[in-house]
Specification:
It is a single chain. The protein has 110 residues and is of the alpha+beta class. It folds into 2 domains: 40 residues, no CATH class; 56 residues, 2-Layer Sandwich (GCC-box Binding Domain). It is built from 3 helices and 5 strands, in the order ββαβββαα. Strands 3-4-5 form a 3-stranded antiparallel β-sheet, with helices on one face. It has a two-stranded antiparallel sheet with strand order 1-2. The termini are far apart.
């Protein structure tokens, strides 16, 4: 839009996930897959890590990722850190580099 071209059917995406930061360098075109991958951690997330949740039956942390609109189970883990490491590896393997910054967990903070 900045360059006078209608991006349809693509959508404008904010690289840093801040919808108020409309600097041209922060904007890029992307489809629905990129839009769904480039999101903040949900407010109801108990682990604090995207794609990692607690399984009450197994009493373990489970990691998952969406690939081609299907959930991919990454395994059960004793600690959140192990589950986050597995998810980070899957993000690097399955998703484009453009969304890594918004989806990789800093393991040192866990």
């Amino acid at each position: 839009m900045y360059y006078g071209v209608d991006p349809y059917p693509l959508q404008v995406d904010h690289k840093d996930i801040n919808s108020l930061n409309n600097d041209v360098d922060n904007l890029r075109l992307g489809g629905p897959v990129l839009q769904s991958q480039n999101q903040r951690t949900r407010s109801n997330n108990k682990s604090g890590v995207k794609g990692v949740g607690w399984n009450k039956q197994k009493l373990k942390w489970e990691a998952q990722i969406k690939v081609e609109n299907k959930k991919k189970y990454l395994g059960s883990f004793a600690t959140v850190k192990e589950a986050a490491e597995a998810r980070n590896a899957a993000v690097r393997e399955y998703w484009p580099k453009e969304v890594w910054s918004a989806n990789l967990t800093d393991i040192e903070l866990l």
